[in-house]
Structures are given as structure tokens and as C-alpha cells.
Design brief:
Distance between the termini: 30 Å
Subcellular location: Cytoplasm
CATH topology of the largest domain: Thymidylate Synthase, Chain A
EC number: 2.1.1.45
GO molecular function: thymidylate synthase activity
Number of domains: 2
Family: Belongs to the thymidylate synthase family. Bacterial-type ThyA subfamily.
CATH superfamily of the largest domain: Thymidylate synthase/dCMP hydroxymethylase domain
Number of strands: 10
Strand order of the largest sheet: 1-2-8-7-6-5
Keywords: Cytoplasm, Methyltransferase, Nucleotide biosynthesis, Transferase
Length: about 325
Amino acid sequence: MEQAYLDLGRKLLEEGHQKGDRTGTGTKSIFGYQMRFDLSEGFPLLTTKRVPFGLIKSELLWFLKGDTNIRYLLQHNNHIWDEWAFERYVSSEDYTGPDMTDFGRRALLDEAFNESYQKELKEFCQKILDDEKFAEKYGELGNIYGSQWRHWQTKDGGFIDQISNVIEMIKTTPDSRRLIVSAWNPEDVPTMALPPCHTMFQFYVNDGKLSCQLYQRSADVFLGVPFNIASYALLTHLIAHETNLEVGDFVHTLGDAHLYSNHEEQMKEQLSRKPQAFPKLILNQEKESVFDFEMDDIKVEGYTPAAAIKAPVAV
């Protein structure tokens, strides 16, 4: 099954269109691509490079809690959203340190600046952990995934818990074609640190199995997509567990699938490696609701990946 992802990486290298992008990095891009993973054959955690499952677990549990503040992530040593919060802080009047304009690219090109940037980022994260008021102000990312999934705001001042609703619908009307959760709220897009890349997903029940299809408008194929595959596979397993279903397919539909120019050599290295068998996901069977799961309740067995491959994040 991993070959589906590797085929996408190869296609981008060989056929991707040269395009500019919001970050100024440059990409090879294709539009409209689909991968399918049979979750009954193994948990799709890529083996041609190590993918940190702990980060995937803590991020998904963060979403499911409806949380939008990076403090929970930092408490679980998860730094994948740091730059988005840091960007808001260094753009504010409260920040008085060195100029951090365009820190993502400058850190790659200027070693002295990178040292200064890493120091400021580390201090920022520590302050998020230590200072609750500071965290409330600068750890907040706006109405991103957790908010839209669990607290979609309505005109009358109420909210919709999309995750709870879709679980109830799977239990009571499994043949419904409305088993959908959306993270794309046009009203909230301007105030989000990063508008949702994985914008909506739909469940499908057949023959006692739960399948999920994700539509992802923007897909960072080297860094982001391996996380997205494992995250939504895990979400499908958790909801199947609560609804007493087996797992079916995870279908990953991509809009703008792109490979950043500074990820091309890393992708070539990954393509040179031989895939191994996917691991097995182990869930704590004593937990009934998806909202009851904690980090220790979710594990993988038999994960034997190749070494990690580092690449810079485009912010």
C-alpha cells in the first residue's frame, strides 16, 4: 500500500508543474490525485522513512478535544504547530526581540540568523508552557481544525459538534450520504493562523466496515501527507471502534499536491528505499468513546521503518 504514496512522489518529480507559492519557496505541483489504503491490511504509517507516531497521536487528540492552543501540544513535546503561533507573536506589538521577518526562509540561508531564530522560538515555547496568560494570547491559532470539528459557530451564538453528530449518525443512519465533517468555514478563514489544508471528510459504511474519504485542498507531499495519511487512518479506527464497525478504506483525495523545491533531494532518497510491511494499530479496548482516549491508549506494533529524513518546513 505504501507504493501509492511513493508513486505520487515520483510523479511530482517527473511531471510536476513548476509553480510559485505563498511561502516563496517554489514547488512542483499537480492538481487532482487520489490514493487508497485498505486499513484491514495494516496501519498506513510509512516505512521508507520514520514517521513520528507520537506527534500524530497528540495532534489528533488535540483536534478531538476541540483545542486550538499549542500549549497542549507543547506539553506532549509536539512542536509541529510552533511556527504558526510564533509568526503571530513576532508580528505583534508585544514582541521586542530581533527582527524575525520571513524567519522560515532566512533560517535556511543565514546560519547566524538561524541561531537567533532558534533561541527566540525556544524562549517563546517555554513561555507558552510557563505563563498561562501569555499562552492564552499567543498560543492560540484561531478557529482551526479543533474548533471547526467540535465548536462550529452558528449565527444564533450556539455551536455544532460535528464529530459527535457524525458518530451518532453512523450509529443510527449508517447508509446516510451526509456523514460529513467540514473544517472550511469561509467566515473564519481570514482569522486562522493557517486555513485548513484538509478541508472535509466523509464516512461510508458497508458490510460492517467504516471507510473514510478526505479532501485535502493543499498537500505538502514530503512532510505533511505522511502525517495526514496516518492521522485520518487513526481517526477512522477510533470512530469504527466506538461505532462497533471494522475498518474499511481510507481514500485520500488531493487538490494541489506539491513538492517543495527544497524537498526534492529528500524525496529522491526516500524513493530509493524499499517499503516494509505496515505495522498493526493497537487500541485500548476498555475505552468506549473517541473522546476518552489518551496517548497511552493508542500504540503500534511491528513498526520497523528506515531512518527519518529531515526537511525544512515552509511557513
